[in-house]
Amino acid sequence: MAKLKPWYQVVTPREDLRENRPMDASEFAVHLDHIRQKRDNVSPDYIEPARFFERTFLTGSLLDLSSQVVRRLSGVQVETSAVFNMATQFGGGKTHSLTTLWHLATCGEKAKSYKGVERILAKAQISQVPKARVAVFVGTEFDAIQGRGGDGEPVRKTPWGEIAWQLRGQEGFDLVAEHDAKGIAPGGDVLQKLLGSEPALILIDELMNYISRARKLEMRDQFFVFLQSLCEEARAHNNVVVCVSIPASEDLEMSPEDVRDFQSLKKLLDRLGKAIMMSADAEIAEIIRRRLFEWDLFDTEAKKVATAYADWAVDHAQELSGIDSDTAHELFKTCYPFHPSVLSVFERKWQSLPRFQRTRGILRLLALWVAHAYQDEHRKAMREPLITLGSAPLEDPIFRSAMFEQLGSNELEVPLTTDIAGKKDAHAVRLDREASDAIKKSNLHRKVASAIFFESNGGMSQSKAVATLPEIRAAVGTPDLNMVDVENVLEGLVGSCYYLNWDKNHYRFGLTPNLNQILVTRRGAVQGKEISERIKQDTQDLFNKGTKALDRRFFPERSNDVPNRPVLTLAVMGLDHLVGDRATEKLLETIVRECGTSGRTYKSALLFAVPDGSDAIHDATRDVLAWEAIEDDTDTRKQLDEGQERLLKKNLGRAKSDMKEAIWRTYRYLYLLGKDNKLRQIDLGQITSSQASNLVELYVNELSRTDEITSGVGANKLLKYWPPALTEWSTKGVRDAFYSSPQLPRLLDADTIKRTIADGVSHGTLGYAVKQSSGQFKLLHFDESLAESDVEIAEDVFILRAEDAQKLREPPRLDRITIRPTDVTLKPGEQASFSCSGVDQYGEACSIPTTKWTSSGGEITPDGLYKASSDNEGGLFTIKAESEGLEAIAEVRIVKPQETTGGGSGPGDDLPPSQKAIRWEGTVPPQKWMNFYTKVLSRFASSDGLRLKVSFEVPADGEQGQSKADEARSGLKELGLDDNVKLG
Questions:
Q1: Which candidate, 6, 223, 362, 938, has a CA 20 to 30 Å from the CA of 978?
Q2: What are the b/e assignments for 922-941, b being 16+ CB within 10 Å?
Q3: Is the CB of residue 353 less than 8 Å from the CB of residue 362?
Q4: CATH code of the domain containing 849
Q5: Is the same domain home to 600 and 579?
């Protein structure tokens, strides 16, 4: 939405309001007789005709009255009357209307130049205003005993004497002098002479006031006779008008005699004249604008504001009251710079108040309102496009005094200053100060409370003396308002204000203290011990909700308060052990490392919930206990009405909810053992009960998300976690590992490991075995269905990897045999010892029952001792070993002495015969050559007697065979070794 200009940058208040000069209510009370006399105490706004018409808005009824009067004074009798009975409420504009007629009649032709008069002439269908003789009689001004006159003027003791003097001076008074002296009303003949042939206007105001006083002087009957004769005679003339104003109905302060006379007077005037209702319900906005602002043009900026607010109102029509979608745009335009609810509340609610002066009262309040809002300090703080109910200067004593005058009592002074404004810590002001930025900036608590005050204090005895939620929304609504904020603000006000009553979305500020003030007293009586006990009780209740797999331990003080068990355990620390306290951290460390006098095995099983501050929980708990005390107090309950009973239940429920939320927010920190074997803190942030069904669930969800907790592991994960040093792993050891090692995730439920084992066995990933008394393992299940309930967690029950389980299922058998050494070089007549070993199907060493040895040359004994023939010319011979249908072959190369390139036929051949030697022959897989050096040969590397004989044979078929042989020769030369590499 485009930025809207503040109202004070679009319209300008009149000078006295801009200067913030205190104004008395009398400034808006028109005294017709004072205007006639041009007294000094009368504002120039009323005395100067041009200025008066500039500030007067011609309502429909005023335009109708004025046009008929000037038409009659011009001698036109058609569609007019000689007598007008002006009926309106006190302060409703009747005297202002009479003043309009006074200026028209006294100014005559000059009036044509005044603002609005051309409309009167157009409606009257005449060309100019006739100048007329004018007489004014105001009942509140004319003293029935002393009369008027003296100092060169005749003394007039009666209304007819005063009217005669004003119409025709001494000549006129002489006509009724005797009647005046004797207190007898003149008859028609005298009145005919008095009125003569010239236009005449007789204005009578505040008539009931005079009649009430005249009754005691026995003048009442004569006045009725005079008024009837005057009206009859005016009707006989074509250019005489009599205007009489009386209240619209019997005033509540009237005596029975007043009521009787009022009814008689009304009946008389209705019979002789024309009743005209001076109501301005639909036009009061324009009246106010003319009286308060120097502004006459509805410009572009004002239109932007009216349009923006009206569009918003149309969009939210179903949520508002008093603003109709079809007329919203015209309504906001008509009321600008006021919000419609500012003006309508007086019409809808306040006009029923006995002391409320309809137009005059509204003007007085709004004048003070505008003057206050226009001051520099206020304008700097508030840049509102419209003047709204929420902006009423209730903190201003002068404004409050004027407002209470209209209400008829100042009994609401204490509720207003306590709950809304006027005191530094008024509840609405404090709530705004503590609210979010958006609410604080707009003073929404203050605005809503002010709207409630105005809407709920018009006619306090009536059923409408409440502010409804739609009325409140309409009063404080702006195009930028988030409607949800209104409900939140109302909730805050209901929970804090002492005099605000609430029932089913109806709100009212009253005189009787509400439950909140009772609460303040009860809160002070709550003992600290009660609070501590209740906190512990509710904390345990909250933490006991959720999964039962998690063990809870509340408020531990020693390490043995938390058992050492392979079960996921949540230790909830008390409010005397807060996060960040050194004592708290020390206690946590002790619990993790110890359990009483013993070391703790299952330290990874522990989780700690540590509180962050205690003030919020203490305050919320104090509220709960106070509300419960009120609920349990039968004497207090008897004083509550039905609405307060409902509010009591709501407040107690809200207090319990606030306490629950306080506990949630306080226990936002978790501690557990990290992978580095140190305590690690986890901050869950600003948590609320909306994030999970209970606190334990929230903890589990967060820790599961980060894999600190798991609801179960698969069999393949077990293989990943398998301790390298173990071939078999006891089921108890498997389970315990998840609670003792921080490297593994914690099992939410220890029994889920049974399911893991059962699934692994059923799918052939794991074997399930027991250890017999002989120390041997017996495979019970492998690659077959195993029920979870059949898995036992014990120290003598084991799981095995699939390959190890397979070995237990199929016993080892001889799978192949090998000869060591695989090849030797001998001289004729030399010997070499061969051995034969077996390997089972699992690649493990296996014993051989018997071995049959044979050779293609030379001799070999049954024990594998081979001797080369002494006369052997040299060559390559084979040694064969046979066992259980399996055979293995080794090679023997016989060389003559001159062919040898080494220092003997084998390792250790050049050692003295008496010296023992460590010998080994075998095949080393290529992947283990480096390990063979590291693990075996490195420890002999510094010995001078170490001899190492290497032979290798690599398949080298195809075109690359020769190049590989050449590369081998090159490498041997670099090492300084024999490069006799053969390819063939």
A1: 938
A2: eeeeeeeeeeeeeeeeeeee
A3: no
A4: 2.60.40.1930
A5: yes
3 state SS for 97-151? HHHHHHHHHHHHHHHHHCCCHHHHHHHHCCCCCCCCEEEEEECCCCCCCCCEEEC
Total count of domains within the chain: 5
The CA-CA-CA angle for residues 482, 487, 492, to 5°, reads: 120
Edge-to-edge, what's the strand order for the sheet holding 669-673?
551-554, 569-572, 606-610, 669-673, 679-683
Q: Please say whether the beta carbons of 69 and 81 come within 8 A.
A: no
pLDDT in tens, 502-537: 887 889 888 888 888 888 888 889 999 999 999 999
Residue where a domain stops, chosen among 886, 903, 927? 927
907 near 917, Cβ under 8 Å? yes
How many angstroms separate the Cα of 240 from the Cα of each of 71, 117, 202, 229? 10, 20, 8, 13
Residue ending a domain, among 705, 730, 758, is 705
pLDDT tens-place string over residues 467-495: 899 999 999 989 988 889 999 999 899 88
Provide DSSP, 194-249: HH-SS-EEEEEESHHHHHHHHGGGT-HHHHHHHHHHHHHHHHHSSSEEEEEEEESS
Model pLDDT for residues 747-759, shown as the tens digit of each residue: 999 999 999 999 9
Question: Where do we find the tokens 């608590």?
Answer: 445
Beta carbons of 312 and 421 less than 8 angstroms apart: no
Q: Which long-range contacts (CB under 8 A, 24 or more apart) does 512-517 make?
A: 514/644, 514/647, 515/630, 515/640, 515/644, 515/647, 515/648, 515/651
- For residues 578 and 651, membership in a common domain is answered with yes
